[in-house]
Amino acid sequence: xxxxxxxxxxxxxxxxxxxxxxxxxxxxxxxxxxxxxxxxxxxxxxxxxxxxxxxxxxxxxxxxxxxxxxxxxxxxxxxxxxxxxxxxxxxxxxxxxxxxxxxxxxxxxxxxxxxxxxxxxxxxxxxxxxxxxxxxxxxxxxxxxxxxxxxxxxxxxxxxxxxxxxxxxxxxxxxxxxxxxxxxxxxxxxxxxxxxxxxxxxxxxxxxxxxxxxxxxxxxxxxxxxxxxxxxxxxxxxxxxxxxxxxxxxxxxxxxxxxxxxxxxxxxxxxxxxxxxxxxxxxxxxxxxxxxxxxxxxxxxxxxxxxxxxxxxxxxxxxxxxxxxxxxxxxxxxxxx
Length: 337
Prior knowledge:
Layout: E1 3-6, E2 13-16, E3 56-60, E4 74-78, E5 92-93, E6 100-101, E7 106-111, H1 125-142, E8 150-157, E9 169-175, H2 180-196, H3 200-211, E10 215-218, E11 222-225, E12 236-240, H4 255-272, E13 278-283, E14 298-303, H5 310-315, E15 318-320, H6 324-332
Parallel strand pairs: 2-15
Antiparallel strand pairs: 1-2, 3-4, 4-7, 5-6, 7-9, 8-9, 8-13, 10-11, 11-12, 12-14, 13-14
Helix pairs in contact: 1-4
């Protein structure tokens, strides 16, 4: 018989279709793809092709060198096909009914590695740390921009996840509005705090650690687990153990530990699920909302091992065929490889 579960942090419902349940290894990506080269002349993100991108805003170059030239380890610049543009001020038009806002914002690309055929799963934790350092620097720059209400960070790995270029990269978008689903998360977290006087994410993490069956990785600073009501096979959340509403790496959060945690989780997923397409999404508080008591930043890894269809879009209820209690130990079996 099927089981319907609700996630406490989002109030989202998920149907676990046990009558057609799959074992974790049945959900893996099938089929071989041709290996990518280390360098692609056509790729605008490869070293030597810097003129094919907008000017960089941040770059790490261990040996120095001129901006917008080869020799970089990580490089960030404006997306050539940006969803939002940095010029101008935010203006609201016709707010009484058909509301629109000028498309002001920031849309950056962060190229994670010089090699075209790398990915976070094959990079080292040290290389992942360099990427996080660039992201942290860029966040610090953008938090002073009064026009931006929310900073979104995401990674699309593979065609099924929405990626159009293979070269390893992450995207950062600063928007003049707070997304509706973020507002819903905030409202749910606030309601839980009002009732319990504690953070729903801290409480969820404590329950997951006590239960243990869905925990993927646990260290001094972070816990990675598959949510009780996972929408997708192998969906994994990474949650910091110290409560904070938005990403601020310091001694409490240890950016090195986060690099190791993130790389380990993505490496396990790469091995366990056959290098699947996935979305990596940061959830954090808006720029100027006072929600430090009840909201808790976290990162979600969402493998694209199934396809949402009419039921999901029509009801907002997800169907998952793999129980997280079975998927988590299977993923853990690839730790350290």
